[in-house]
């Protein structure tokens, strides 16, 4: 017989029969053999076996209505509390809807087949198959308008600083209500995980900030600080033989904002760098339309966003984030011990000092 082809070296497809008492990890490892199930298996192993190493700094981007679906409580907060994510870029909408839970406001399962005219008449707001009372919006708006009157908000600040301060107030409200940890903002505040919003005006939080500016409020988002702070985080991650990893749920502006840290260092600041070391994305966007949401890690190499030598350590899984996020988190928690939190928010001044020094050296 001729020698078997090298292409036949993959594991033989011979899955275990699914059993009633199977764990999530066993299900992934023993039955996820092909197509996006196999990509999810690869993603779980990449995240757990390489990205969670102590010397890796993990950035996570969030798009899509994840917090209204309860993923903040079920998956994102456990990631934060176990040290599995070090910094975050999120849409403002996810953080706004996250605040509802921290304030003790409720959202409910509904149906995507409801009559929206009737819902409007009854004061019910719909996010696909999630329903909530219109006053949830009004109460959350009132909360943000109230807290940004505080003296500590009367100045320009990065969105990370804004969310840290907001998280302090949300955590205090949770404590006052004697409820369990329900808010991403509160968890990030407690563990000093900086949260950035790439388009701070594109959410109800930003809308309330803008409205209060008309009344003389001095709060301003410092987008320059956001760009430089996120680049400083990645630069620090890569120095002293460290690595940088990106965990991307969805795409859009948060994905680009997280990935542009490397072009900011290499192209704009002229600092010697090669790109992120690990790239893990879950998306339903196609690459052939040319949009950023579907752009592959191979394409990102051409921009300097991903280290070309690290392409084997990249995975793209085409699947709904609401399905894969709980599976990934359950797998990781069962396979890896908690990591010591890096508390990057507390280190912002030192990170910026390093960026400033390297930028000045590069300009000489």
Structure description:
With 364 residues, the chain is an alpha/beta fold. The chain has one domain: 3-Layer(aba) Sandwich (Deoxyhypusine Synthase). The chain contains 15 helices and eleven strands. It has helices spanning 24-31, 35-51, 71-81, 92-102, 116-121, 134-147, 159-177, 184-191, 204-213, 223-238, 252-259, 261-268, 297-301, 321-335, 348-363, and strands spanning 56-62, 87-90, 108-109, 124-127, 130-133, 156-157, 195-196, 220-221, 243-249, 278-283, 314-318. Strands 7-2-1-9-10-11 form a six-stranded parallel sheet, with helices on both faces. Strands 3-5-4 form a three-stranded antiparallel sheet. A two-stranded parallel ribbon has the order 6-8. Strand 1, helix 3 and strand 2 (87-90) form a beta-alpha-beta unit. Helix 7 packs across helix 8. The longest helix is centred in the middle third of the chain and has 19 residues, at 159-177. The radius of gyration is 22 Å and the shape is globular.
Attribute tags:
three-stranded antiparallel β-sheet, 364 residues, Deoxyhypusine Synthase, six-stranded parallel β-sheet, globular, alpha/beta
CATH homologous superfamily descriptor? Deoxyhypusine synthase
Structural class: alpha/beta
Would you identify the CATH architecture?
3-Layer(aba) Sandwich
- The helix/strand order is HHEHEHEHEEHEHHEHEHEHHEHEHH
Helix proportion: 40-55%
**Stretches where pLDDT falls below 50 for ≥5 residues?**
none
Total DSSP helices: 15
Number of domains: 1
Mean pLDDT: 94
Distance between the termini: 65 Å
């Amino acid at each position: 017989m001729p020698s078997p082809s090298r292409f036949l070296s993959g594991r033989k497809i011979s899955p275990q029969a699914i059993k009633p008492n199977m764990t999530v990890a066993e299900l992934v490892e023993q039955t996820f053999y092909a197509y996006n199930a196999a990509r999810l298996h690869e993603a779980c192993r990449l995240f757990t076996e390489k990205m969670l190493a102590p010397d890796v700094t993990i950035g996570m981007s969030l798009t899509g209505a994840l917090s209204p679906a309860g993923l903040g409580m079920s998956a994102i907060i456990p990631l934060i509390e176990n040290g599995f994510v070090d910094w975050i870029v999120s849409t403002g909408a996810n953080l706004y809807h996250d605040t509802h839970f921290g304030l003790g406001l409720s959202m409910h399962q509904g149906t995507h087949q409801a009559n929206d005219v009737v819902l409007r008449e009854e004061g019910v707001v719909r996010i696909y198959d999630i329903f909530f009372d219109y006053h949830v919006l009004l109460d959350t708006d009132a909360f943000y308008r109230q807290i940004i009157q505080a003296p500590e908000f009367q100045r320009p600040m990065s969105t990370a600083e804004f969310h840290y301060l907001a998280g302090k107030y949300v955590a205090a409200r949770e404590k006052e209500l004697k409820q369990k940890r329900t808010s991403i903002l509160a968890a990030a505040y407690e563990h000093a995980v900086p949260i950035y919003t790439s388009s701070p005006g594109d959410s109800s939080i930003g809308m309330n900030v803008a409205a209060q500016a008309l009344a003389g409020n001095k709060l301003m988002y410092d987008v320059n600080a956001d760009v430089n702070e996120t680049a400083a985080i990645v630069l620090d991650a890569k120095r002293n033989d460290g690595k940088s990893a990106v965990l991307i749920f969805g795409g859009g502006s948060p994905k680009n904002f997280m990935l542009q840290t490397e072009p900011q260092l290499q192209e704009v600041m002229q600092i010697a760098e090669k790109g992120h070391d690990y790239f893990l994305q879950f998306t339903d966007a196609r690459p052939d339309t040319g949009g950023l949401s579907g752009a592959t890690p191979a394409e990102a190499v051409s921009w300097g966003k991903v280290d070309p030598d690290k392409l084997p350590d990249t995975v793209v899984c085409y699947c709904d984030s609401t399905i894969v996020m709980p599976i990934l988190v359950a797998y990781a928690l069962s396979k890896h011990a908690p990591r010591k939190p890096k508390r990057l928010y507390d280190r912002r001044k030192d990170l910026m000092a390093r960026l400033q020094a390297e930028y000045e050296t590069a300009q000489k």
